[in-house]
Structures are given as C-alpha cells and as structure tokens.
C-alpha cells in the first residue's frame, strides 16, 4: 500500500538528501500500517511560525473530516505533519503570469524550502513548487527525499504554504495557500491528486476520461449511469462550443467545479472506492494461526473492523458452506457445530454504504478471513487462518450477449463463478483466472435476473445480480 520502494528509486536517481525534521501526529484513528496516512508538510513557515503551521494543518484536518465522504470514513485516516522550516516566510511572486495584467500582486522572491511559486505555468493563481514543468530546482525530488527521511509510509502528501494570497495546485503533491477558502482549495486539490478527479470547470489541455469526466453523453452508457436523476446527477456539457462542448460532467455544482459546495455523488463514490482500494475494513482478527495455543470449546472468533460512521459494513459468517451468523463482529462455535476432520469457517465483509451504487456497480470490494479447523475425536488439533481482499468486476451489466468477469487478489489464482436462476437452478459454472478478463457467452439465457456467486475454493465470498436483456 505504501510508496517506499518508489521513493528510494527516485531519490537515488536525483542524489537528493534530506534532513530529519520534527514530525507530529495530529489525527490518530489506528496503527499507521492499518490506516491511510495523510502527511502535511509546511512551506514558507519560519521556525518561529511552526506552531502556527500546526494550527493551520489542524484547521484543515478538521474541515476535511467534516465533509462527506471523509466524515463517514474518518476512522480510515491518520494525519501527520512534518515541520519543515523555511528561511523566509511566504511564497515567490515573479509577476510572470499571462492570464492577468502584471503585477497583479506585489513582486517578491523569498527563500523557502520547497520553492513555492505563484504565476506557475503562466497562471497567476497557480501556486506550485516550480515556475514551470522543467523542474530546474529538482524540488519534486526534494519533496520525495523529505518524505523518505521523515515519513516513508505515507499514502498522500499535501503542502500548506504560509501565504494569504489565493492559490494552489494539484499534481503528485497538492499545494494550497492560507487565503480565504484555503481549506477548500486543499480539499479540491486532494480530489485531483489522491482520488483522480477532474475539474468540472473547463481547463483547456487537462481534458481526459476520468471518474467525473467523459465524452460519452448517452445517459444509458455514461460511466455514472447508475446515478442518473439521483442527487441532481445528469450529463452536462463543459461548454456550449468548441472542445469544451464535447466533454461532459455529472453535476452542475460540485466541489470539483466550485469551492464551498459538497462533492457530487459521483465524486463521493470515486473517493470511497479509492479508500476501499487502499485499506481493508478488517483491522485485525482472532484467532491468528501463530497465536493459537491449546484451543478448547467454545471456540471464539472475532473481527476488529474499521467502521464508517454510521456503520455500513455487513458481515456474513459461513461454517462448512452453511450460513452461521450475519452482521456480528464475533461468534462462538461449540463442539456440536463441527464435523470430525477438517472444517472451514469464513467471514466476508462488504460495505453497503448508500454512497456506492452497490447493486448495480461494476466493481466491488470483498474482504474475507478464513479459518481451517482440524477437529479430531480427541479435540481440536489445529486452527489456521488466512485473510484476503478481492476486487471483483462484472461488466457490462445489464447485457444481452457477453458478460466479462475479472477479479484481483493477492492470494488466489482462480475463482469459481456460478450463475444461478431465481428459482435456484445452476445455469453455468465457470472458472476465472486472477488478473485476467474472462468473457462468457450468455446469449442463450432467457431474459431476466440471475444471481452470480463467486467462490474462493469452496467458500462463497460474494454474490451479485446479473441482468440479461
């Protein structure tokens, strides 16, 4: 999940070194290796101003986790700050912007650690760590070096700049000033950098297919089709003429277009999906294979989950392919519940938040723990455990000819998929291969709704509706 190896390679290439700075945690939800770690770096703060930086970073953090969907998923994040002092306060204003009449702000050049500069790429409000894309000062390598030396297991870094002039930028490391709406700038820029969201205002040269931007204008085919006519989601052109008119956004009043408004439902869904891809909701479980000594009845099994607020996680416990319990964090198994010989207990966890269109969503995340219980006539001989994450796709859905299945997992090489009619008859049973798209012909099936069951070995880990047109 972390970026340490990439950082090492990048730093080695540029031969950049970084010193150790004071690092502090300002929001703790759990262990760093079981949380998404947001790291905020100071820029343009002198040593005497680092207490102010902590206050500014805390204010931003409070605002971020007061907004949906970060509010619901606050338990998934830790926030840390790295107090990087600059020799002088503020940021450069070279007066080289071409979108305003210069000087639009007083010209100034200050000695700061990360070279924060307004007027970047010719735009007055574009606050970046270089004046253009040439990276003449190797500042990006310098940022990597600071992170590698001070917090190498970061997931996303953000740079706060000690300037009251409005400005910010996205990119690998989003940067934001302390102007009015500065927190909104930073949250908007995180939308770009961390969650791959596009601007929903037209920015020439930055067009591209993304979660919230497309050239498809058919409501039945657009990537956010499941949200059409819900929460004011539609298909809206970026402009009335030229290239802008060929691109479409899902909403007319999203944070990716205007500050101080919420993210639209499509952007929220994209953010939640990224959170799921980075962090499993299973914080820990017990018993763990190497921690079991002299097990005796009743056998207790427990999940420690990272729960959204409100909790939208659903769990399903299955013992020897028979449903055992649902939506509980722990169970107890009696000797009479087990067969003599090998027994399999599994629990699968999914998130049924309304922020995702789960029933019709092409991609969903399933998290499982499996225990193998060796029960002899003399009692429990051994319990082994295994945890796995699955990212499963089924598309297109609905369909009338072919359906594609794909799954990604670090543990399994194959998965079985059963297609079941609503009266319980098994129509097809197929084997699909990890990381490969497997296309199945269903043109001979009758029109209607089918259930697809996904099995890892003999363990049912997910079910999904398939609509045959």
Describe this structure in words.
- There is one protein chain.
- With about 475 residues, the chain is α+β, with helices and mostly antiparallel strands.
- It folds into two domains: about 5-195, Collagenase (Catalytic Domain) (3-Layer(aba) Sandwich), CATH 3.40.390; about 280-469, Macroglobulin (MG2) domain (Immunoglobulin-like).
- The chain has helices at about 5-15, 50-65, 140-150, 180-195, 265-280, and strands at about 20-25, 35-45, 75-85, 155-160, 170, 175, 235, 250, 280-285, 300-305, 315-320, 320-325, 330-335, 340-350, 365-375, 380-395, 400-410, 415-420, 425-435, 440, 450-455, 460-469.
- Strands 12-11-14-15-16-17-20 form a seven-stranded antiparallel beta sheet, covered by helices on one side. A six-stranded mixed beta sheet has the order 1-3-2-4-6-5, covered by helices on one side.
- Helix 1 crosses helix 3 (about 140-150).
- The longest helix has 15 residues, at about 50-65.
- The two termini are about 40 Å apart.
- The relative contact order is 0.09.
- Residues about 1-15 have low confidence and may be disordered.
List the helices and strands and how they pair.
Blueprint: H1 4-14, E1 22-27, E2 36-43, H2 50-64, E3 77-83, H3 139-150, E4 156-161, E5 168-169, E6 175-176, H4 182-193, E7 236-237, E8 248-249, H5 265-278, E9 282-286, E10 299-305, E11 313-319, E12 322-326, E13 330-333, E14 341-351, E15 363-376, E16 379-395, E17 402-408, E18 414-421, E19 426-433, E20 438-441, E21 448-456, E22 459-468
Parallel strand pairs: 2-3, 2-4, 4-6
Antiparallel strand pairs: 1-3, 5-6, 7-8, 9-10, 10-13, 11-12, 11-14, 14-15, 15-16, 16-17, 17-20, 18-19, 18-21, 21-22
